[in-house]
Amino acid sequence: LSLSLPLSFVPSFLYYQVNLEYLGRVVFNSGGLLYPDSLVGTDSHTTMINGLGIVGWGVGGIEAEAVMLGQCISMVLPQVVGYKLTGVVSSYATSTDVVLTITKHLRQVGVVGKFVEFFGPGVAQLSIADRATISNMCPEYGATVGYFPVDDMSIKYLRQTGREAGSVEMIEKYLRAVGMFRDYSNSEQDPAFSQILELDLSTVVPSLSGPKRPHDRVSVSDMKTDFSQCLQNKVGFKGFQIPADKHGASAPFSYEGKDYTLKHGSVVISAITSCTNTSNPSVMLGAGLLAKKACERGLSVAPYIKTSLSPGSGVVTYYLKESGVIPYLEQLGFCPHTASDTDPNFHLVGYGCMTCIGNSGPLPEAVTTAVEQADLVAVGVLSGNRNFEGRINPHTRANYLTSPPLCIAYAIAGTVLIDFEKEPLGVDSSGSPVFLKDIWPTRAELQEVERQYVVPAMFRDTYSKITESNSSWNELEAPDSQLYPWDPKSTYIKSPPFFDGMTQDPPAVRDVEKAAVLLNLGDSVTTDHISPAGSISRTSPAARYLSSRGMTPREFNSYGARRGNDSVMARGTFANIRLVNKFMSKPGPKTLHFPSGESMDVFDAAERYRSEGRPLIVLAGKDYGSGSSRDWAAKGPWMLGVKAVVAESFERIHRSNLVGMGILPLQFTDGATTETLRLTGKEFYSVQVPPQLKPGQLLTVKTDSGVSVEVRCRIDTDVELTYYQHGGILNYMVRKMSK
Questions:
Q1: Any idea where the Aconitase A/isopropylmalate dehydratase small subunit swivel domain is (predicted)?
Q2: What's the number of CA atoms in the CB half-sphere (13 Å) around residue 506?
Q3: In this predicted model, what pLDDT tens digit does every residue of 519-552 receive, in sequence order?
Q4: Cis before residue 394, ω within 30 degrees of 0?
Q5: Do the Cβ atoms of 387 and 213 come closer than 8 Å?
Q6: Which residues are paired to 511 by β-bridges?
Q7: Are 51 and 313 spatial neighbours (Cβ–Cβ below 8 Å)?
Q8: Which residues fall within 8 angstroms of residue 265, CB to CB, at 6 or more apart?
């Protein structure tokens, strides 16, 4: 399927909510020609727009650059899974709890590469913000889109957000005329689906997901027991393997003149962050009202807990301020002034991707020292969508996703080892216990505050100033030359080597001969494992490079900030401190060089192989490349010399990115794994790539130990095959433009 209709294209992280509130048109009017709106964005959570009835999904930056240059997007025609919603969400559950429940369910079913469309009478009970929350986490449950067709609620939302009345009327008339307007209570309008799943919304309970993956949901009522079990489980997605005699470990420390004690399960980060929840008035105002009630009962947050608030748009700040909850969030430390290393509490730190992407910043030194000395499993709690290992903060081994109100609740409690139904959050000024249920906002309270303060004038006022509101941005000077003036002294932006040595005509596709295995990985290796965006370790190859350029550790910044420098990003590839490589006895960014067997940093091993003239491959398990649509997770391996990745399965965007960089994605067939094939990764591998390679063709991988295994080439379309034959999508576009 090639999409050649006009597509909206949004290359930004913050624009999810701006798409909903301002940019999304639902129906285009191009000189009298009406057609449905659509969207491609350079981040996986572009799917948030599906909540407004606009089909849209994320692609990697590599593919997006080709779109901007006029190239169509190609994909295999997807199956469409119908997800029927019935019932009504209980007064104690939120849209966050709904999406965490759906995410776990769909991951269990398996919907990678499929479209999911929600239908049924339960949908009518969900606001557009609730639907957008569910659509936003589409990448976490693996689908390409999580689509909600337009209905009366969608039209009301367009009016609420200040869209022009004539446009809204046109949208409704057009969609009714072409049969795309949905009445969710009318089962006769339900489409025919490839598969149907169902959820009764009344069964959804307050939830978290973690400690290491977004789809490992646990109910709040089970949290204390579940975390205790995770401590003793062997190392894995639900385990830390803490020795039994260390479960009661503690670390006393002093902070701001007072004494505190950290234990396993202590909360050290609580962040209301991420596009998933900060666009939803019900959970944001719910957090504000809970903060108000908590303060009125005399509850507080320990000052060493690093708390923050990063709204999805200026509208959120507007209604939080107008509703009067800001002073209470501020009293608990959540906003509104700028945070610093010495003042870590809840602050409005800005807009866009913050703690959820690893931009939490350092914890107070006293806290990190205590965590390290007692080897504690400290906890981060965030209203985000991703909690992969090593992503949030190097000192929080456990990270849980949950709703904004529960972020505040766990910050007050100071630990996840609490049963909110039986144990109080604290005591009030009279010494009486205060339980979470005592301060939890009612549905009626939330609806009244939202009705009063989330109004069209607020949206119009915010977006009327959208080009004028940031004077710092407007004052930036930008070069007006056709070619970018590279600064050789810059450690942030550097001319990349992607086109070095490129010829006018593509070279012949070459076989992969006697390749070494750079890493032997397991299941659910994310793009954060492959190309982390967080802080740069002082002992890493990237740190050594920056130090050689005169940088001090305080100036290292993060991999995300340095993504314009290929020398940093190549050294940061597979640099995640929680990376589990089967070659090594413990997690970390290390591997073995073969045949010497020498242990070294991944980058250093790749450089050694390069000097020996040996190509590289990566072995992996299921869901390789899940997580962010991070193009450096493909560019980085390319720079290390990786020619192919052999995995049990691939996540959609990352598989596309690999092809876009000329890396061959190969998938085991018939349930084969490295274990069933008895592959150690210490072998050398060869892959014969025929000159007339076809999408989905079966190829043979041979090892020098005599093993021969059939794999499927996961180049899925003819267009992708063309990209691969050119050595990548960017090479193809440059050659196409030059002709």
A1: 543-670
A2: 21
A3: 999 999 999 899 988 889 899 999 999 999 999 9
A4: no
A5: yes
A6: none
A7: no
A8: 227, 377, 379, 398, 415, 416, 417
Question: Rounded CA gap, 228 and 117, in Å?
Answer: 37
pLDDT band at 61 (very low <50, low <70, confident <90, very high): confident
How far is it, in rounded angstroms, from Cα 72 to Cα 60? 14
Calpha distance 531→44 (Å, rounded): 16
Rounded CA-CA distance 88/328 in Å is: 30
Residue recorded with tokens 């150690």: 680
Locus of tokens 């092809």: 659
Q: What are phi and psi of 48, to 5 degrees?
A: -55, -30
Residue 253 has pLDDT above 60, yes or no: yes
Confidence of residue 340 (pLDDT cuts 50, 70, 90): very low
**CB-side exposure of 10: number of CA atoms within 13 Å?**
27
- Per DSSP, the three-state class of 715 is coil
Question: pTM for this structure?
Answer: 0.86
Stretch (H or E) spanning 288? helix 281-296
DSSP state of 388: -
Q: Among candidates 266, 119, 99, which has minimal Cα distance to 198?
A: 119
Concatenated DSSP letters of 51-103: GGT-EEEE--HHHHHHHHTTPPEE-PPPPEEEEEEES---TT--HHHHHHHHH
Computed on alpha carbons and rounded to an integer, the radius of gyration of the chain in Å comes to 26
* Orientation of helix 152-160 relative to helix 165-177, angle to 10°: 160
Residue 203 has pLDDT above 60, yes or no: yes
Q: Cα–chain-centroid distance for residue 169?
A: 36
Q: Which residue has the tokens 């957008």?
A: 132
Question: In angstroms, how far is CA 86 from the centroid of its own chain?
Answer: 28
CA distance 186 to 124: 11
In order, the DSSP letters of 624-690 are BTBSS--THHHHHHHHHTEEEEEES-B-HHHHHHHHHTT-EEEEE-TT--TTTTT--S-S-EEE---
Number of H helices and E strands in the chain, helices first, is: 25, 31
Strand 217-219, strand 267-272: pairing: unpaired
Containing H/E element for 529?
A: helix 527-530
Model confidence at 15, in pLDDT bands (50, 70, 90)? low
Q: What is the pLDDT of residues 618-630, one digit of tens each?
A: 999 999 998 877 8
Maximum pairwise Cα distance, the chain: 80
The model's confidence at residue 274, banded by pLDDT at 50, 70 and 90, is low
What tokens were used for 112? Answer: 């990678």
Q: Which token pair is 582?
A: 């089967």
Structure tokens at 437: 């249920």
Task: Say if CB 348 and CB 311 are below 8 A apart.
Answer: yes
CA 64 – CA 634 distance, rounded (Å): 14
Q: Are strands 115-119 and 80-86 parallel, antiparallel or unpaired?
A: parallel
* DSSP conformational letter for 383: S
All residues at 6 or more sequence positions from 165 whose CB lies less than 8 Å from its CB, including other chains: 159
Round to whole Å and give the CA distance between 435 and 406: 13
CA distance 218 to 531: 28
DSSP 341-408: TTB-SSEE--SSS-GGGT---PPPHHHHHHHHHHT---EEEESSS---TTTS-TT-SEEEE--HHHHH
What is the residue type of 299?
A: L
Phi then psi dihedrals of residue 230, to 5 deg: -60, -35
Tell me if 144 sits within 8 A of 40, measured CB to CB. Answer: no
